[in-house]
Write a structure and sequence with these properties.
Structural class: alpha/beta
CATH topology of the largest domain: Glucose Oxidase, domain 1
Order of helices and strands: HHEEEHEEHEEHEEEEEEEHH
Shape: elongated
Helix content: 25-40%
Number of helices: 7
Distance between the termini: 46 Å
CATH architecture of the largest domain: 3-Layer(bba) Sandwich
Number of domains: 2
Length: about 240
């Protein structure tokens, strides 16, 4: 199978990102499953912030491989072209920086200083299957930060930054540059870019139906025939409910 088309060949509708801000990761997971996609959830990461706002944006990627003593001395940070630093300075405004640390959180992939710079440049968020150092500071950012855990050791002890804006794996999920990253309290979904417009259009109606279902459940209605709406009367009640709104 060929790789997906590059993001430049898969334009987003003007309202796709805004629509996705109103859609939960749970809804997206179900919609992707209906389309045959079962492995788009990034495993093992959670928001650093106790209450995180929904995060949506195209993926901008950074790939780490295992560090080695001859390639990752502390002096490596003096290099002006160090890929970790370059990623922070080139991640486009509105994009989510996604880092592949091979699901190794025993060292940091970034810290609060770099993430503060990324927030200042307009980054939409950060996802890493590695650690984050200075996590208390990173958790105070307005920009959402999702990571495996807090981890004090510098990235150089375990991670060698090598590639920017290339296909990666993060938390067991494939992430291609330009895929749409959606994050909330339940975690992170990767929406393949060629499906993003469809998912955005289908998500809002599904969220609305689930609001209706929740109200029905709270008033004592049985879940059978309601969710999914196999009883014809369910959809009729839903239409009446929408009309009242």
């Amino acid at each position: 199978m060929p790789n997906p088309k590059p993001a430049s060949e898969l334009p987003l509708n003007s309202d796709t990102i805004e629509l996705l801000k109103g859609v939960s990761t749970a809804t997206v997971a179900t919609l992707l499953y209906k389309k045959g996609f079962k492995s788009c959830f990034i495993q093992g990461v959670a928001p650093l912030q106790a209450e995180t706002k929904r995060m949506v944006g195209p993926a901008f990627t950074l790939r780490y491989i295992a560090a080695r003593e001859d390639t990752d001395p502390i002096e490596a940070f003096r290099e002006r072209d160090h890929p970790q630093r370059v990623a922070i300075e080139t991640c486009p405004e509105g994009s989510v920086l996604v880092m592949d640390c091979r699901q190794d959180s025993t060292a940091a992939s970034a810290g609060s200083i770099l993430l503060t710079r990324l927030e200042g440049r307009g980054g939409a968020g950060v996802v890493t299957d590695g650690g984050i150092r200075d996590a208390a500071g990173a958790a105070k950012l307005d920009m959402p930060v999702f990571a495996a855990k807090a981890s004090a050791p510098t990235n150089l002890t375990k991670h060698h930054a090598i590639d920017i804006d290339v296909p990666i794996s993060c938390g067991g999920a494939a992430v291609y540059p330009g895929d749409i990253i959606l994050g909330d309290g339940d975690g992170i979904m990767v929406i393949p870019r060629h499906l993003a417009n469809e998912i955005a259009a289908e998500g809002a109606p599904m969220e609305l139906f689930e609001d209706f279902v929740l109200e029905e459940v709270k008033r004592g209605v049985s879940i059978i025939g309601l969710y999914p709406p196999t009883d014809p009367d369910t959809l009729a009640r839903f239409e009446a409910w929408k009309a009242k709104r």
